[in-house]
Amino acid sequence: MIKKILSAMILAVCMTFADTASAQTTTIVNPILTGFYPDPSVVQVGTDYYLVNSTFSYFPGIPVFHSKDLKNWKQIGNVIDRATQMDFMGEKLTRGLFAPAISYHNGTYYVTCTDIDHDGNFVVTAKNPAGPWNNPVRVPQVRGIDPSMFFDDENKAYIIYNSDAPDRKPLYSGHRTIRIYEIDPVTLKVIGEEKQLVNGGVDLSKKPVWIEAPHIMKRNGWYYLYAAEGGTSVNHTEVVFRSKSVWGPYVAYENNPILTQMGLPEDRKDPVTSAGHAQFVEGPDGKTYAIFLAVRPYEGDYYNTGRETFITPVEWKNDWPIINPASKEIKYEYTVNYKEVKQKDALPQAGNFEYTLTFDKTLDPALLFMRTIDSSSFSLSKKSGLTMKLKPETVMELGNPSFIGKRQQHLYSTAEVELDFLPKSENEKAGLTILQDERHFYFVSKSLDQGKPVVQLYKAASDGKKMELITQKNITDVSKPVKLRIVAEGGSYSFYYASGASWQSLADKMDAKYLSTKTAGGFIGCLFGMYATSSGDQTTNSASFKYLKYSGNDPMFQKSAK
């Protein structure tokens, strides 16, 4: 008897120890995707999570990320990765693809999105989220932007979207509606008539603007319709409605908005602003989380890193969701009670990090071209790295220049390349650019001036048709590779070069606000770009980039650095 009691006690102690050992916590660092990753949408399939973002007129379009823990994300592909699917030639960089949404049903992945200037709303499907994705199927009856799909019982599917005001007669600027169609999940054709679910927003009498990015979810017998409101800037919010029927009527939550950063002290340290465009997802612990966009300004409303992807916990109160319930202020860290699952061979995406891209085999799927891909204009090799043909097109035009870019993911960051290039004329230039759009960029390049090799710094001219020379320095040997470096420090950029062993300053503390979204307008963030142009001339010349080195060191992440 005593032996049995002792055995039971030992077993209990062992089980308690095992439970304690297996109980783990994970610290999630915000943003979970730093840099220009706006308009996130997420779907859970079993123990896997897949997330997509807007890319506007960059190519490939709509990155697809995979995670097991909502913390560690790896890009596994792009939805629009073939020029035969779609291209954006002739479109400004801030146009193109707006606000994709990803969903899953019966073995098929769906991405809905809007090509804002040409194809309108469309659906793309795949059996594997890594691709290949099918060609887009247009849904012309869906007029507006930000479509998403919801799958209800009995295999019924619906498409929800931002649309015009009733009878296309807005009562005020920014007056929009949320509408719904039933849609066949196989043929992707709408069924029946559309219905209006929300007019204007939470309270039409207060003239709410830009109700958009709608999603529907079902929980405890309620259909929840939640959407962004207020426009995607400092007045951005998330609001929620609910109904007992997918068709409504939907009643607004009395304590809306459920997410906003409005009303917080403007002088708070390391602020997060412009939060909204959220989607709910169940975490590995069975709790609800919201993934949404927000920005990290370095001064007032200036930011160069674009709109980024964040996460916070969600608490349910009286069958209503409250995002970030413990504090109105979005935190840079959240502790969750489940195990972290790291991604193999994934580039880091959160906190401070550094890495070097080499170009001996393939291009990383996160690298971006302008509007389409021209595979004949570049090549990869272990010896030379990335060799880019000089094209007559420039980044100031609406074509496909010889440009391959990587997102600026930190306010304080450094990008560096090693360039092997022999210019043959003053029009031939190759180097590294920090670019917001066609009219807002700096370009540090190797070229010729009166037959002599130089390193030059240019700025886009205000007329959008040419570049303005800021400064230049002579280099002694045109045949040697040159290293180029751009250092971002919040409100400034500094530019350096090395034609030998030591680094030399080309220009210090150039204005970064000039490249901010606030100054330039639009919806995109800055890219560090490898760029080679003959500025309107035809040439057979090329430039080779041995590597692209990137490092980020933002102060708000210092305590999270590992």
Could you name the key traits of this structure?
2 domains; Tachylectin-2, Chain A; Jelly Rolls; disordered N terminus; 562 residues; 8-stranded antiparallel sheet
Uncertain spans: 1-22
End-to-end separation in angstroms reads 52 Å
The class by helix and strand makeup works out as: mainly beta
DSSP strand tally: 39
Q: Within the CATH hierarchy, at the fold level, what is the topology of the largest domain?
A: Tachylectin-2, Chain A
Helix content: under 10%
Write out the CATH superfamily name of the largest domain.
Answer: Glycosyl hydrolase domain, family 43
Largest sheet: 8 strands, antiparallel
Estimate the strand proportion. over 45%
**Which CATH class of the largest domain applies here?**
Mainly Beta
Structural domain tally: 2
Q: How would you sum up the global shape?
A: globular
Label the CATH architecture of the largest domain.
5 Propeller
- Compute the number of helices: 2
Radius of gyration, Cα only, in angstroms?
25 Å
| Chain-averaged pLDDT | 94
